[in-house]
Amino acid sequence: MNILLTGGAGYIGSHTAIELIEAKHSVVIVDNFVNSNPLVLRRIENITGKKIPIYCINIADVAKLDKVFCKHNIDAVIHFAGFKSMSESLQIPLKYYRNNIDTTLALLEIIKKHDVTKFIFSSSAAVYGYINDIQYIESMPVGHCSNPYAWTKLFIEQILKDVATVNPDFSVILLRYFNPAGAHTSGKIGENPNGIPNNLFSYISQVAIGKLAELKIFGNNYPTKDGTGVRDYIHVVDLAKGHIAALEYTNKHKGVEAINIGTGIGFSVLDIVKTFEKINKIKIPYQIIGRRAGDIAECYADTSKAISMLNWKAEKTLEDICCDTWYWQIQNPNGYEK
Ligand code: UFG
After folding, report:
1. N or C: the chain end with fewer CB closer than 10 Å?
2. Is 149 known to be catalytic?
């Protein structure tokens, strides 16, 4: 298939582009590089040996987006583009609502015009909010989100449901990601945060490489096995493969399905620190500080729907995540800027 990736130069988009090409699909990328680096394209081409059409546009610009669809015969869209910092979204909510919703509406108008009926959306476990008990299963009610970023994911899920209701040919898969981590085993692509990182693995990597003095662990008095927060860390290459499985599923599906993409296993912050230290033989100094606003104690997936419906499950381990994160970091101490 000919697949358009919005935000295809980003962390998850770039890994998915590689897996799609390896699965013999063709890829077209649209990205405005607001939170990604154009150099990633060279890395993807280097890994796959394929040249990828890339358009530097804002997808809210329907005229420019329309031209991309006129030029390429697109069969399916995977929509990664969007602002993704939960903490920033609490500070600047309008930026998140304006960007994430507007771009999606523009994209949906254009795909309707071009009769594209297969759509995969990067949603998040954050749509389960803070009142559901773990583990999260797709049949749970969604809502009670703790930040505007999460609400944008939930609103877009609703928009897609409404659009699918009036377009019976539509097949929409809402992939609810848990905590993406790790990097491509080549060490050529990985997460490249702008400025101070705010997710756990980016933070640990920068402590390991000496850019930051210590990890600050946000609370050790949660009702978890060691008091630190528990999450479901999914290797980004497994996550990328989940998109291929979802794409295949759209060939035999109409309507909308929400599917968790996680491992089903929860690890605490201290588990991550210990595993990273052991696998990479490096010390991670840390200090326990107070809880971070908006954090929940535990979050991990029920993965039975992904297994039964998509025939997909995560294969990589926490050790793989720690090893690949560190390999990417030491190969690229300054990210893509060399
Ligand atoms: N943590 C620390 N110190 C840090 C960073 C994180 O102790 O410097 C802890 C957090 O308190 C939490 C765990 O590590 O217990 C994971 O935190 P992250 O910031 O890495 O991830 P979150 O679970 O907060 O959020 C992630 C994504 C969101 C997504 C959500 C889905 O960043 O985009 O998972 O559950 F919506």
Report:
1. C
2. yes
Indicate the helix (H) or strand (E) that contains 289: strand 286-289
Task: Ligand 1, residue 272: give the atom nearest the CA.
Answer: 14
CA-proximal residue: ligand 1, atom 12 (nearest): 229
Q: Which of 11, 149, 177, 203 is catalytic?
A: 149
pTM here is: 0.96
Which residue, judged by its Cα, is nearest atom 16 of ligand 1?
200
Query: Average pLDDT of each block of 10 consecutive residues along the chain (338 residues)?
Result: 97 98 97 93 96 96 97 98 92 97 98 97 96 94 95 98 97 98 97 83 95 96 97 98 98 97 98 98 97 91 98 98 97 83
Omega prior to 287 cis, within 30 of 0: no
- 93 to 136, 151, 194, 307: CA distances (angstroms): 26, 10, 19, 35
Distance 269 CA to ligand 1 centre (A): 9
